[in-house]
């Protein structure tokens, strides 16, 4: 396939970016989208031009690094798919493809298509964990958990933190991401000890990072590549209200 790419180029977070047109030729439909960008960068390097910066790591749909907005959709046109799993067979010869980074104040652009998602890391550091003494791994059956609860916790835990929920939300809300992390631990007995401080601290950090408010439109869940449910936002709201109603922290 021969394609026209309209790629966002930006030197750094302190400069103004712009869309630049590129042509790529002889693209195999069996290539992944990131492999197609590799071909573009090889062409640019041969010409002595600077390659396009974009984030990637595992290229197996696990790490959540491949955060690209493709033709107006997070991770591209195929539902339930990360950018690295998107194949060029989803496009046609002669297509024009617009490629942009995530658009959110809390996700500043580092360069070109690469964004800084460390805001998610700081939210996790605020409470997205269970405090335990280090040592040997505990026995897996030490704390029995009903299968239904374990399955719901596992489904919430599948969140890869890619940020597609933020990029697809008109308010750039991180509620789906935060709710998945809160729900995962709130559903399990191991998370009960810190459940009140966890949700208070994580929501406070989310607000501090500058993410917008949730309006329950559902675009976050629709574009989530791993299918995180809106039900988690309901769990987060319940956990937060319960924590505030019984907390000594009146802030």
TrEMBL record:
<protein>
    <submittedName>
        <fullName>Succinate dehydrogenase/fumarate reductase iron-sulfur subunit</fullName>
    </submittedName>
</protein>
<dbReference type="GO" id="GO:0051537">
    <property type="term" value="F:2 iron, 2 sulfur cluster binding"/>
</dbReference>
<dbReference type="InterPro" id="IPR036010">
    <property type="entry name" value="2Fe-2S_ferredoxin-like_sf"/>
</dbReference>
<dbReference type="Pfam" id="PF13085">
    <property type="entry name" value="Fer2_3"/>
</dbReference>
<dbReference type="InterPro" id="IPR009051">
    <property type="entry name" value="Helical_ferredxn"/>
</dbReference>
<dbReference type="InterPro" id="IPR050573">
    <property type="entry name" value="SDH/FRD_Iron-Sulfur"/>
</dbReference>
<dbReference type="InterPro" id="IPR025192">
    <property type="entry name" value="Succ_DH/fum_Rdtase_N"/>
</dbReference>
<dbReference type="GO" id="GO:0022904">
    <property type="term" value="P:respiratory electron transport chain"/>
</dbReference>
<dbReference type="GO" id="GO:0009060">
    <property type="term" value="P:aerobic respiration"/>
</dbReference>
<comment type="similarity">
    <text>Belongs to the succinate dehydrogenase/fumarate reductase iron-sulfur protein family.</text>
</comment>
<dbReference type="InterPro" id="IPR006058">
    <property type="entry name" value="2Fe2S_fd_BS"/>
</dbReference>
<feature type="domain" description="4Fe-4S ferredoxin-type">
    <location>
        <begin position="150"/>
        <end position="180"/>
    </location>
</feature>
<dbReference type="GO" id="GO:0009055">
    <property type="term" value="F:electron transfer activity"/>
</dbReference>
<dbReference type="InterPro" id="IPR012675">
    <property type="entry name" value="Beta-grasp_dom_sf"/>
</dbReference>
<dbReference type="Pfam" id="PF13183">
    <property type="entry name" value="Fer4_8"/>
</dbReference>
<dbReference type="InterPro" id="IPR017896">
    <property type="entry name" value="4Fe4S_Fe-S-bd"/>
</dbReference>
């Amino acid at each position: 396939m021969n394609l026209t790419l309209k790629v966002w180029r930006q030197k750094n977070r302190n400069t103004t970016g712009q869309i630049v047109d590129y042509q790529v030729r002889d693209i195999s439909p069996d290539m992944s989208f990131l492999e197609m960008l590799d071909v573009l960068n090889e062409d640019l390097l041969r010409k002595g031009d600077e390659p396009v910066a974009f984030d990637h790591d595992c290229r197996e749909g696990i790490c959540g690094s491949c955060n690209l907005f493709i033709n107006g959709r997070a991770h591209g046109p195929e539902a339930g798919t990360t950018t690295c799993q998107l194949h060029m067979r989803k496009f046609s010869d002669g297509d024009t493809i617009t490629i942009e980074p995530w658009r959110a104040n809390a996700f500043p652009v580092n360069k070109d298509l690469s964004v800084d998602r460390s805001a998610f890391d700081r939210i996790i550091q605020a409470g997205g964990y269970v405090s335990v003494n280090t040592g040997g791994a505990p026995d897996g059956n030490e704390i029995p958990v009903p299968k239904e609860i374990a399955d719901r916790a596992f489904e919430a835990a599948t969140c890869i933190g890619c940020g597609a929920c933020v990029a697809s939300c008109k308010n750039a809300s991180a509620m789906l991401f935060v709710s998945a992390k809160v729900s995962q631990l709130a559903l399990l007995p191991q998370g009960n000890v810190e459940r009140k401080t966890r949700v208070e601290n994580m929501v406070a950090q989310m607000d501090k990072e500058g993410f917008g408010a949730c309006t329950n439109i559902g675009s976050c869940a629709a574009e989530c590549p791993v299918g995180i449910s809106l039900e988690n936002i309901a769990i987060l709201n319940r956990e937060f209200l319960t924590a505030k109603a019984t907390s000594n922290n009146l802030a």
